[in-house]
Structures are given as C-alpha cells and as structure tokens.
Amino acid sequence: MAWHCSGTTNQEMVMKLKGKIMQGSILSSDRAEASMLAVDRGRYCHEPEPYIDRPRRIGFNVTISAPHMHAYALSILSDQLFDGAKAMDVGSGSGYLTACMAYMVGSRGRVIGIDHIPELIELSIKNVREDCPHFIKEGRVNFIVGDGRLGQPADGPYNAIHVGAAAETLPQQLIDQLAPGGRLICPVVSIEGFQRFQDLLQVDKNADGTVTKKKLMQVSYVPLTDPATQLHKD
C-alpha cells in the first residue's frame, strides 16, 4: 500500500489516501479528511520524507503509524468525534492523531493524549504548539504522562478512544470509560496455534451499557506495555 498512498506534501498524501476509497475505504469520512489536511504530519514525523505511507520511528522504541492506519482510524471513529465530544488517544506518541482528533471535536471538545514516556509527552506538546497552537490555548487537547492501559477516568467518559499499540488482552478499564454510544478501537494480540497475530478490534458501547465487539482487520503495532519493557526492547 505504501507506494499507492505516499506523497511529497501533506496534501498529496491525503489526496492519495482519499483516492483509495473505492479499493478499501481507507479515508471514507469527509471530516477525517479535513482533519488530516489541517494537521500537517510533517510537524509530527521528523524523519526525511514524512509523508511516505509507512510507520516511522519517533524514538523510545515506538513509531508514528503509517498514514493509511491513521486515516482508517479517524474514519472509523468519525461519528464519535463530533463537535463537543470527549476523546482519548492512548499511546499518543508524537501527538499527530491526538491533534487530528482535536480538530474533529472542535473548540468545545476535549481530547486527552496519554503516553507513559515523559519525553514523548514533551515532544507532543511541542509539535502541537508549532502546528496548531490554538488547540493548546483553548484546552482542546491535553497531554498527560500515564499508563494508557488504565486510561484517564477523571476526564471521561469518552465518546471515542483510540489505542495506538497492541494489547495482550482488551483493557477492560478503557471499555469502562466509554460513554454510552461511544466507540473504542484497539489492536489486540490473538494466538492461533503457535502463531501470534494482532486483530484491530472495534468496541461499541450501546445506550443500555451493553458492549459489542467486531474484528476489523489484522494489523501490526508495537506492544502496549510498561515503560521498562518498552525501553529495554531488543
């Protein structure tokens, strides 16, 4: 997919992602498209050629996901990222998807970006200040150091939760923090025989509090783990 959706500018990257709708519904939401046009990936990915459609290293043994995965996530969460919504981005990394979510929820919305590496939180704040400083000034986005597996109950419940790393099991704490009508997407490890896979799961909380789960696709993400394990990864 990388050779189809890469660009030399942010706009070209987004237009190529949109052009793949008929072949896989990558960027299927107009509001998701608008957010990716408004938030410049190059401000959050500091390696050469930031608009190539593949994951890129951001330090601390983690990556910023490929643009097509961000486009897909924002499209899947589009209805929950409405004006005035509350959202949380677990494993916020360099802050890119958090900023896109903040664009979508508008000035009345709030997005929490949570990561357990303090240096990445500092990087996220710096990136957003340079790209969309009004998000910080308005309090529309807030980055915090914490264990994303536990979420941030004090600022919930959330209409949308995105998890940007693969959990061994679906974190119940995050499901508990979903508002009725809310949606969570999270990569979760799946074991079949001697093989390990990752399934991207969609979790919806119904109005009566019941939960439905749906497998969307197989993916490949860095593990959702503790800081010591992450930083000592070979």
Write up this protein.
With 234 residues, this protein is α/β, with parallel strands linked by helices. The strands form 2 sheets. Strands 5-4-3-6-7-8-9 form a 7-stranded mixed beta sheet. The protein has one domain (68-232): Vaccinia Virus protein VP39 (Rossmann fold). It has helices spanning 2-5, 10-19, 30-38, 67-76, 96-105, 118-131, 133-137, 172-176, 227-231; strands spanning 56-59, 62-64, 86-90, 110-115, 141-145, 158-163, 178-192, 195-205, 211-218. 31% of the residues lie in helices and 27% in strands.
Share of residues in strands = 25-35%
Per DSSP E runs of 2 or more residues, the count of β-strands stands at 9
The named CATH superfamily: Vaccinia Virus protein VP39
The stretches of 5 or more residues where confidence is low (pLDDT under 50) are none
Pfam families: PCMT (PF01135)
EC number: 2.1.1.77
Enzyme class: transferase
Organism: Dufourea novaeangliae
Summarize the structure.
The protein has 234 residues and is of the alpha/beta class. It has 9 helices and 9 strands.
From the structure above, extract its key features.
two-stranded antiparallel sheet, globular, alpha/beta, 9 helices, seven-stranded mixed sheet, 31% helix, 234 residues, Rossmann fold
Question: Secondary-structure blueprint of this entry?
Answer:
Layout: H1 2-5, H2 10-19, H3 30-38, E1 56-59, E2 62-64, H4 67-76, E3 86-90, H5 96-105, E4 110-115, H6 118-131, H7 133-137, E5 141-145, E6 158-163, H8 172-176, E7 178-192, E8 195-205, E9 211-218, H9 227-231
Parallel strand pairs: 3-4, 3-6, 4-5, 6-7
Antiparallel strand pairs: 1-2, 7-8, 8-9
Helix pairs in contact: 3-5
